[in-house]
């Protein structure tokens, strides 16, 4: 093969590689610029989120027997009394309130993102 032909092939390969790299970088930049698609607002997704919240709540209550005992003691009481007792307990224990709010946050985020009413 002549050196002229090799030079043309090398130049063509370099240009092709440059175009390929350029297109790859542009598509990567475009993909990075697109916001992530939020998970769907389906019953299955809600169940998945809420099962995670329930799992973390269970772990928290197991690790904090005093908190577990308080919530267990509410069993069988009228709902209007339970709400008041929970508010009083959490106001007296702000660290516990923050922990439980953090655990429940994925459920609140799901509800807000999907236009569902917040839970009390």
UniProtKB/TrEMBL annotation:
- Per the record, the domain of life is Bacteria
Species: Mycolicibacterium nivoides
Write out the entry's keywords from A to Z. Answer: Signal
Q: Which InterPro entries match?
A: MHB, MHB_sf
| Keyword check for Signal | yes
Specify the Haemophore haem-binding domain's residue ranges.
39-115
Q: Does the keyword Signal apply?
A: yes
Organism classification: Bacteria, Bacillati, Actinomycetota, Actinomycetes, Mycobacteriales
- What is the name attached to this protein's record? Heme-binding protein
Signal sequence annotation? 1-32
